[in-house]
Prior knowledge:
The chain is mostly helical and 287 residues long. The chain has 13 helices and no strands. Helix 2 packs across helix 4, helix 2 (14-35) crosses helix 9 (193-217) and helix 5 packs antiparallel against helix 6 (110-130). The radius of gyration is 20 Å and the shape is globular.
Amino acid sequence: MLPIYWKLLEHVNALEILANRIFWSFTFMLIVLFFTKKWGLLVRTLKGFAQNQRQIYALAIASLIISGNWFIYIWAVNSGHMIEASLGYYINPLVSILLGMLVLKEKLTIYQYGSFILAAIGVLIMTFSHGSFPWISISLALTFAVYGLAKKLINVDSAVGLTLETFVVSPIAAIYVIFLFVQGSNSFLTASVGTDLLLIGAGVATAVPLLYFAKGAQKIPLSLLGFLQYIAPTLTLILGVFVYQEHFTKTQLLAFLFIWSALTIYSLSKSKLLPKKEFKNEKQATL
């Protein structure tokens, strides 16, 4: 339901919303660590990072990438591109498949190859129908997929991880907010009390779903987790079309049908309904 939240702040510059989201998320996470008594875990994690440069780089990349993802999503929602934003999160699992294959050398089944091809066709339909590359959708899918890859390399407690991620980019966010105050173009503390509360609340609205997601992910099967992740883009699509009256063309419907077909095949490939068949090229088959 975050699109509704960002729509309430559409009178505020997207970068200012992002800066406040980062700063107040970090502030809220410090409070969470205090009440959950995880300060010791935070200190131990930092000591571990000091001895592992690879994790430091992964943390920095994750922080910058998720910040970029947040900005694109906020801007897209408040600029009338909610449908394209939803498409990005539909494509995301398929981009993760591609990254897993290229970076982690994971083997794919023939069904997963098929789902990726169908998704690519959907993207091409969107590209040729609009006459331009659907950069919003692809950017959201890529940034979130790369973020997930970086998180695999970090492997820390979810609360501590989110605290560190927001900590890394909080100085940049604070500098930008100060710059807006100096320029006199800030909305925070000048627009209205409601705006101030919404900007502060962005921290809670960001952190709470992520924390519960991480906690829930430990308690349910991975296949169910993947299926549940389609709820968010579906709700975003419904909001964009039926609540905020974004134009949904027949060509977009056709592109979405290819994406939905791809996701259906991908979901079935992760279940026991389809046999696990790894893709083999001619050379492998000959060997």
